[in-house]
Amino acid sequence: MPKKIRLGIIGGGGDSLIGVLHRVASFINDNYEIVGAVFNPDYEQNLAFAKEIDVPTNRIYTDFDTLVEEELKLPEDERIQVCSVLTPNFLHYPMAKKLLENGFHVICEKPMTMNYEEAKTLQEVHQKSGKVFALTHTYTGYPMVRQMREMIKNGELGRIHKVDARYYQGWINTVIHDKEKRSTVWRLDPTKAGISSCIGDIGVHASNLIEYTTGLQIKSVLCDFNYLYDDNQMDVDGTVLIRMDKHVKGVVRASQVATGEENGLAIAIYGEKAAFRWEQEKPNFLYKMSDTEPLQVYKPGHAYNTELSLNASKIPAGHPEGIFDSMANIYLGAARAIRGEDYNDGEFPTMRDGVRGMNFIESTVASHKQGNIWVDLD
């Protein structure tokens, strides 16, 4: 087993869901060791949290800039090699940029930046750095999503005609109907979250899943948002018609106010030969549908799956795997890239996915604000 990769964590302290998801994912395949961090902007809380999760406190720093400065003073074989950026959206770009410029690999939460211009700038910095950049579109780590990607690549569906992706949640219902609460939540504050809430937070996962599985690119969008209240600046619901090619159309449906929904990400892809359907809340089932054959169900861990899918399965068939395993597969792919090992280009989302995501988000906002018209992506 190669020596563990030295990992730094920025953000994700306290009861942060993203924090525990990333920490557990980094441990699952025994590739990483957390050696330094700034979990929280309050230094006392930062130290207390490090002690709570048993991370040595000698490299728990007061702030992000101090972490970079002090780590660079250490010998190269001791300093942090890769940093996970788990902060609110508005900090992703400046932190990722500084890390890359100073020779650190980066694993970053999405959306990658606050806007498309920042994304293109970060892409240039990344290209100059020669470092690994992984974007945590978590759902690309599921074995059956990877199975779908490889089967589509191998022509199992034939020419694709129609794509339908949805991501329905209900969590903002608890705050959106309370004027005081909706004015204080950072995800509904454009200065912290960016220009979009619903599409920027979850709709972009659906669009990424479309491009990841089909190998096609979204070329233009027509979008209609719902803000619910006149004083709310951010979309909490949206429907996006998409064109991927002359004869390939689809829809992305996303909502944070879908009452009673939990984490309802799902995708259906229809081709001339067959179709696939997959749901995040039932991740171990990939359905292949046909007009001429009975419904087929693919499940993880079986020898009939592709190498990319099997590499993402850590336990035998019939043992459920979930969101922690999915994120762990992205960390595993990033570890291979950091070590200079061979890896499949589907093992982790990259800078390109981040740029595509920001282009999609901005184009949907432009489409809605310009009167629900078609807008081309770059």
Automatic annotation (TrEMBL):
InterPro entries: Gfo/Idh/MocA-like_OxRdtase_N, Gfo/Idh/MocA_oxidoreduct, GFO_IDH_MocA-like_dom, NAD(P)-bd_dom_sf. It comes from the Bacteria. Pfam families: GFO_IDH_MocA (PF01408), GFO_IDH_MocA_C3 (PF22725). GO terms for molecular function: nucleotide binding. SUPFAM superfamilies: Glyceraldehyde-3-phosphate dehydrogenase-like, C-terminal domain (SSF55347), NAD(P)-binding Rossmann-fold domains (SSF51735). Residues 145-276 form the GFO/IDH/MocA-like oxidoreductase domain. Gene3D superfamilies: Dihydrodipicolinate Reductase, domain 2, NAD(P)-binding Rossmann-like Domain. Residues 5-136 form the Gfo/Idh/MocA-like oxidoreductase N-terminal domain. This is Predicted dehydrogenase. It comes from Flagellimonas flava. The lineage of its organism: Bacteria, Pseudomonadati, Bacteroidota, Flavobacteriia, Flavobacteriales.
